[in-house]
Write a structure and sequence with these properties.
single chain; 486 residues; alpha/beta; FAD/NAD(P)-binding domain; 3 domains; 16 helices
């Protein structure tokens, strides 16, 4: 029986451990932290519970697939519900747009609040569906770094569709021309942030991201986002996967003669491994686990994705105006991204407020709410200080007060903070970038690190810093790709 060592118990690591155990491999997962889940974590304070990382669920079928493969009933492990309203958007002039998951309701809402017609919305959403269906087979389900991935009729047809996939215009150029409306352009530009990119640089192809949320559907787990990781961990245990927590792998040993993995080193002990799958930030692997001869300079130079600054506030009060997911838009979206590009934080940032107690009553005490308050931020280059973060906090509070006509600071009962420095330290994400490299160029998808090593046999990679990208659905896709490669 081949022995597999999975380094990292994030969602990608859990998924590949499950897949390989089902196939009969002897699988052990080594996690440097004290628990499973990676960025899919939670935190509590003063009777409030918060999802610490991802806060929106799309493509839940990718989670269900793992249970079906294991011949288990997904609902025995994991339960979720669909959202009638995915997001609520607030603009400085007082306009509020509800982004309904039902396309008819969405088109009606947008046409009611703006000059954009229902027909224009339908055409736009259908185009994004076309783009997603034309590209997902290759970009999300296959390794882009194996010739055989391109040798199929389905992929060949996709290449013929390239001129119609908005690859040669930016997201903003496509949206601005389509809608001729600042509010709706801004709304759809926002989907660039789902993989840490800039809509004024990222290719229009990425507009297809909105299809997942607005057409395929937005969902939320009945026990919070953390339950995604918990359900996968429980499945892995039931299948016989072994876990070692508080276990920082120190080195991956390579047989020089055959250039293949032989073992990993943990507390100076050698653990024989026929296959090693790394569910870590790719920079950590090359800088800490492999010898210098395998270091990849090209990936260090790749443009990093954005990061985030998050405040977790226990709020004394309830606000009917807000829903589960809320966006308070910046007045000048382009300037906000220009600041991020230059490593700075704009004084009027777009603010995301996630309130899970709207759907899960026990996430906050009676009559109170748990606010996850986030802004997009540049990755860490040493520019962040406590003084800078205090100024950012003041700007966020000012933004909330202005848009919601409240004085929120008086209502903050508990507070925790995560910034790019924290993210880098806690998740070993290079420079605190949430999604590894950005997708700000036409070719960026092809330059993400492959899911296997070109130089070392038996070494594979999954998770958000490698192909196909960050976020729960893509981390699960990366595990599936590795499974197929092995």
């Amino acid at each position: 029986m081949k022995r597999v060592s999975v380094i990292g118990a994030g969602v990608g690591g859990l998924a590949i451990a499950i897949r390989l155990k089902i196939k009969g491999f002897d699988v052990q997962v080594f996690e440097a932290g004290s628990t499973y889940g990676g960025k899919v974590a939670e935190t509590t304070s003063g009777g409030f519970r918060f999802d610490r990382g991802p806060s929106l669920l799309t493509m839940p079928e990718k989670i269900d697939e793992l249970f079906v493969l294991a011949k288990k009933n997904p609902r025995d492990y994991f339960q979720y519900f669909s959202l009638d309203e995915s997001f609520r958007y607030f603009y400085e002039d007082g306009t509020i747009i509800r982004a309904y998951s039902d396309n008819k309701k969405l088109a009606s809402e947008i046409s009611k609040k703006t000059k954009v017609s229902k027909k224009t919305i339908y055409k736009y959403l259908n185009k994004n569906k076309f783009i997603f269906n034309a590209t997902s087979h290759l970009f999300l389900e296959k390794s882009l770094h194996k010739i055989k991935s391109y040798l199929s009729l389905k992929v060949l047809i996709s290449f013929f569709k390239l001129p119609f996939l908005n690859l040669f215009k930016t997201m903003n150029e496509v949206n601005k021309k389509k809608f001729n409306d600042k509010k709706i352009t801004q709304l759809f530009n926002r989907f660039a942030t789902y993989n840490g990119s800039n809509p004024y640089l990222a290719p229009g192809l990425l507009n297809s991201i909105s299809y997942l949320e607005l057409s395929k559907g937005a969902y939320y787990p009945k026990n919070g986002m953390r339950s995604i990781a918990t359900s996968l961990y429980k499945l892995a245990l039931d299948l016989g996967v072994r876990f070692s927590f508080n276990s920082q792998v120190e080195k991956i040993n390579i047989c020089e003669k055959k250039t293949r993995v032989t073992s990993i080193v943990l507390n100076k002990e050698e653990i024989i491994s026929d296959i090693v799958v790394c569910n870590n930030d790719i920079h950590f692997v090359y800088n800490n686990l492999l010898s210098k001869k395998f270091f990849k300079k090209s990936h260090k130079k790749s443009e990093r994705s954005s990061s985030a600054i998050i405040f977790y506030w226990g709020i004394d009060g309830e606000f009917e105006k807000l829903d589960l997911h809320n966006i308070l838009f910046s007045k000048d979206y382009k300037k906000e991204f220009d600041y991020i590009k230059n490593g700075e934080v704009y004084h009027d940032p777009t603010v995301y407020i996630n309130i899970t107690s709207k759907k899960i009553g026990h996430d906050a005490p009676l009559g109170k709410e748990n606010w996850f308050v986030m802004i997009n931020a540049p990755h860490n280059t040493g520019q962040f200080s406590d003084e800078m973060l205090q100024k950012i906090r003041t700007n966020i509070i000012s933004k909330i007060n202005r848009n919601l006509n409240i004085e929120i600071e008086k209502l903050i009962l508990t507070e925790q903070l995560v910034d790019p420095r924290t993210i880098e330290k806690e998740t070993l994400s290079f420079a605190g970038a949430l999604y590894g490299t950005s997708s700000n160029t036409k070719s960026s998808a092809f330059f993400r690190h492959p899911n296997f090593s070109n130089k070392i046999k038996g070494l594979y990679f999954c998770g958000g810093s490698v192909h196909p990208g960050g976020g729960i659905p893509l981390a699960l896709s990366s595990a599936k790709i590795v499974d197929e490669l092995i």
